[in-house]
Amino acid sequence: MGSNPPPAPANWLPKVVFGLLLVFCLTPWASPPVALALGLVLAQTVGNPFQAFTKKYTAKLLQYSVIGLGFGLNAHAAVQAGRQGLLFTVASIFGTLALGYVVGRWLKLGRVVTHLISCGTAICGGSAIAAVGPVVGAKDEEMSVALGTVFVLNAVALFAFPPIGHALAMTQQQFGLWCAIAIHDTSSVVGAAAAYGSEALGVATTIKLARALWIIPVALGTAYFFKQKDVKVKLPWFILGFIGAMLLNTYVPATRLVGPWLVQAARLGLVVTLFFIGAGLSLKTIKSVGPRPFALGVLLWLVISSVSLYVIVSV
């Protein structure tokens, strides 16, 4: 008789591990990078037992967390930060889209995948891809490849940016601006900036959300160039919520009594969001990207990161 196969792990084990890690993410010892790392470890070992749940609620949790962060910001300071980042935003968005088109053709990638990865890098990662995908009629596999590419690079950026910022002795203002320009998703932008300091967090959040509004003109331009008609582009509503929270904190004194509690809840929500994102990055997701789309994503990211860093540090 042959030997029996090893028993499968008890189906309760992944749920217990998930629960313990989630509870840890709500403690003061968990930071955004730590939460993302724990999610990645979970995904590569016992697996995420609540894949459908985390996928469904990650975006919503991030959006509510971003709104909560608005209660810790002053509108006047935010306007000043937005003005500073405007030129960087315009130049980097259109420069990235143009470079992506050229590199995509050189790599012989499909037009749709090239445009999705370029938009994700240029504007705000998964949100931009989700908005532009239906406009170009992207297939599920094309969406998966683009999302997988930016999610992997988001994880790398969250760990890499704070040490680079400290090594170069970047100010809070400089680092916040760099994060908003050079990191794809809002979640990783806020996570990296939060790890660097509260001032960097305010600058990064404000500029990144202003940058996210470019989803609308870019999606409309995409519809024109891809010759699509009757296109509906959704406004990122949570940005309006963030602005409203910031205005309340600035002009309604009573709001400041609860503002710190809301900001703290928002930061906890962000930590949990990054844990969910890490838990969704399975090895299968990473392998599905393929070398050429990943090469496009890496090249675009390295260019925008290095050029923006040089300009910010030099000015």
From TrEMBL:
List UniProt keywords, sorted A-Z: Cell membrane, Membrane, Transmembrane, Transmembrane helix
Q: What is its main location?
A: membrane
Q: Which GO terms describe its cellular component?
A: plasma membrane
**Localization (cell):** Cell membrane
List the membrane topology term(s): Multi-pass membrane protein
**Which Pfam families does the entry mention?**
Cons_hypoth698 (PF03601)
Membrane-spanning ranges: 16-41, 61-79, 85-104, 116-137, 143-163, 175-197, 209-226, 235-252, 258-281, 293-313
Family listed: Belongs to the UPF0324 family.
Q: What is this protein called?
A: Sulfate exporter family transporter
